[in-house]
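Most newcomers find our protein records easier to grasp once they have seen one. There is nothing in a record beyond a sequence line and a structure line. Getting from the letters to the tokens is the skill we practise here. An example says more than a description, so a record of this kind follows:
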Amino acid sequence: MTERSPKRGFATRPADPESWIKASDAPSTRGSADGGYTARLTIDVTSDLRGRIKIAAFQRGVTVADMLRDLLAREFPSAEGDPS
């Protein structure tokens, strides 16, 4: 009765940790024209505003992240000569 179950657990350790760590450096499958996303932006919003944002994204058939990326790109276009 003390034997372990042959079932795999929820999270298992990778067989080769080095390749697993380096795999996170691989380009994202979602990528973009500028080579990918390089920073995370955290903002505080009220739960009411968060709900409205989620509903708007759902109605448009996009993710909240994609919708907000597009919004920020429209509001803050890169100026000529600015590094990308």
